[in-house]
Each structure stands twice: as C-alpha cells, then as structure tokens.
C-alpha cells in the first residue's frame, strides 16, 4: 500500500510539473534589463516586449536594474525560480566578462543558457564634441601627445570588466598609449558625461540618438569598429579605413537568457516566441532604425554553440590584457 501511495504521489507531482511547463507562461514575464532606462539596452527591450508578449500570450514587463556591469540584475534572475517567467536580456558584457573582472560576482557564465539572440550592434568610436580631432589617426596622435604631457585621455565604460572597459584597455595596449578608465553604471550616464565633456571617448553601440547628437555637434563619431561601412550608417567610416587601428574591429550581440536548469519545454516556447518576434516588420524596422541588426534565425542548438563560442572568445581577450578581478 505504501509503495502504491508513493507511486501515486510521484505521478501526481510529475503530472503537475509537466502541466506547469506546458502551461508556460502562466503569468506575465519579466524582461530583466541590466542597465538604467534610456540606454540602448532599454531601447531594445521596449522595441520587442509588446510583440514578444503577443507571441507568448502574456504581457512582457521590462524591469531596469543597473549596477556592477550588469551582474546585479543577472544575480537577481538567478535567485528566481527556473520557470522562464524572468528572462535576462544580456550579452557577453554581463554574463562572460563581469565574472572575470569583479570578485564580488559569484555566478559563472555557464549558470545561464542563451535561448536566442535578439540584435547585433555596431560599436561607435564616440568622442566629446570639442575633442580637437576629426578621424581615428588624428585621435591616436592626439592621445599620444596628451599622455606624453601627463594628461592621458579618459574613456568611459559601463563598469569594470565590461566589454567597453576591455575595448579601452585593448585600445591602450595596441597603441601603447596610457589611458584612464572612467566606469559608469550604464550607457546613459556615460553618454551624458561625454556630451558635457567630462570624459573624452566612449566606445558604445551606435544608436539613433548618437547620430542626432553627432548632427547637432554635441559628440563626434570618428568611426564604427567594423571592417566595412554599414549600410544604415554610411556617413561614418569603418575603422579599417584608418592606418593606426585598421584591425580594431568589434561588435556586440544581445540575447535572451534563462537559468541553465530551465525546463526544455519552457526554453522551446521562449525560443519560438523570440523567433516569431523577429519576423515582425515593425520590430525589425525599429531595431534597424536604432542601428541594430536583427540576427539570422538560430536553432536552440545554434544559440547554445554561439554562447559557448562567445565564452571562449571573450575569456581569451580578457587573458590577453591580463584582466584581474577586483
């Protein structure tokens, strides 16, 4: 009798688990954005959340939580149930680099699973509007002279160990020019100090607002860190057109992540909904208007491989500049 009772209870629990997975989502889904409102990450989230919600049949609510290179938001996601109702909008910046750079970060990259990519961003080489240079080669010469005079240029990032911090360190290494890192909690405050002239440069995903700021003379866009000019931003040279930094080419992708132990059925539902969202003409047009490229369609297996490859790539970059956790 006891064994029958145990089997019955086990069967009921299994049925309840399967039902919960099949019923996903059973309530609104939170899209956790690891930066304050106003930055490009926030733009991405608010471009896709309504359509994603329609695909899922439940509202998708954007929550902004900045700090510690995105690791505060990532940690909050890990502290939630593994049921897919809290999704992390992230990139290698928060999930691969932050654990390498911040000793306070206790999670590993492998604690997350990439469900699907949502956008790829081109990185703009942005400077304050009154920096006395007009192209990359002039910038390198100016930075060298400033360093020689004991006034090294300053570069912004969204936090220690972030992708943009690594870009600045890598720039300093390949040019042999000392530069000073100025970390912020997100792209929006970094951009404000760039506009006001409090920091010299910020290598950041290029968005529509940057183009408008450039047209107004409030910032300069010396180049995009791309091997060729981008169709949606042909006014800006590719960094490969410079002499000093022709091989300094990078971009950054954003994806939607869940905890590693999220049930496969939930992952499949999220993956299908994200893929459906990316077929929406309005979503694609708005992403492209923000100078973002919708990614090619990825299978769940392809997404997993892309994340694994990204972990290897960025850990190699961190090693090359001797990044130390602080």
Automatic annotation (TrEMBL):
Residues 1-20 form the signal peptide. The keyword Signal applies. InterPro entries: BUG, Bug_dom1. The keyword rRNA processing does not apply. Keywords: Signal. Pfam families: TctC (PF03401). SUPFAM superfamilies: Periplasmic binding protein-like II. Belongs to the UPF0065 (bug) family. PANTHER family: BLR1237 PROTEIN, TRICARBOXYLATE-BINDING PROTEIN. This is ABC transporter substrate-binding protein. The lineage of its organism: Bacteria, Pseudomonadati, Pseudomonadota, Betaproteobacteria, Burkholderiales.
